[in-house]
Amino acid sequence: MVVMTQQRVLVTGGSGFIAGHCILQLLEQGYLVRATVRSLHREAAVRSVLTEAGMVNGDALSFVAADLTDDAGWADAVADVDFVLHVASPVQPGHVDDPDELIVPAREGTLRVLRAARDAGVTRVVLTSAFHAVGWGHPHDDHVFTEADWTVIDGPGVDAYGVSKTLAERAAWDFARDEGGSTELVTMLPVAVMGPIMGKDVSGSNHIIQRILEGDMPGFPNLFFPIVDVRDVAAAHILAMTTQEAAGQRFLISNGPAVPMKEIGALIRSSLGAAAPNVPTRSIPDLVVRTGAKVSAQMRGIAADLGYARKTSNDKARKVLGWQPRGPEEAIVAAAQSLVAKGLVKTK
Q: How far apart are CA 186 and CA 126, in angstroms?
């Protein structure tokens, strides 16, 4: 039986991957939840996806139409809200033709949500930033990244997504300091988020798993990914929302050392067996990738990180929030299994 708290939480981008898992866990914990969608025509579809994923107490979930690029709807979205989980943001790592398509809505949308929350007297906003606002543009050495680090936006290997997340988070902290009033801010910095898919949309780092399952590459480049399970990311957001000591803090949401891409493939093959016939087994030599980078913008982004495993620390999240994440292997396997079960893997 779910015991209602009567506290109301607004989750932005309610149709998204992380947002969906936040909604499920909030409802399980008895919160009233309001979610934003760009159009209320999407409400039925989002409810259906959440119900399929095991949603409880769906009567405590409501929807409001609001878009990050427009002021309309945000006053209604934050009315009578205690907390905001601002999860919505454009996600497109790698090469983009027009960086402003990511940077402008990420920054301006974040400020739009923060202004509305402040004006409504919201207690705390938890903003989903990203490890892309921490670990890029730095020398490739043995440095262990923490919440104290910021991406150097004009440094080597920084893409438009990294710039968008960094500028949006910096703008949020400037706003909180200068104009935030009594509304507290916490920012979350998850590494590559993987885990069980909801519905038919594949987002974020689950695209990596999908490409591996489809055999969309002849082999594995020498890349490493720090990984965290989406269910743990959602749990961390709620802990950041409710833990008094979290106010005014950044939290790096990671777990364990970065996983080699080839090891991700091997884990998928061993766990799914016959359900993963197209997973490659070979490695792609660095020289081949660097040669391809001379003519391909996508390959240039890959080449910049060959052989580099970014090290991260989650000590702060564990100590301050009491956060206890599962291993990256569980996230990888859950993502792969759900992709296959939902028929989201193209067969050759």
A: 5
Q: What is the pLDDT of residues 76-106, one digit of tens each?
A: 999 999 999 999 876 655 666 777 878 888 8
Helix/strand/coil for 294: coil
Q: What is the pLDDT of residues 267-311, one digit of tens each?
A: 999 999 999 999 999 999 999 999 999 998 778 878 989 999 999
- Cβ(69)–Cβ(103) under 8 Å? no
Cα distance between residue 97 and residue 243, in whole Å: 40
Backbone φ and ψ for 332, nearest 5 degrees, come out as -60, -50
Rounded CA separation 219/302 (Å): 14
H or E segment to which residue 116 belongs: helix 100-120
Can you tell me the distance from the alpha carbon of 330 to that of 267, in angstroms, rounded to the nearest whole number?
A: 10
Residue 165 among the catalytic residues: yes
Half-sphere exposure of 297 (CA within 13 A, CB side): 8
Active-site residue, selected from the candidate residues 165, 262, 342, 346 = 165
How much is the average pLDDT of 299-328? Answer: 95
Predicted structure pTM score = 0.96
Q: Residues near 178 by Cβ (< 8 Å), separated by ≥ 6?
A: none
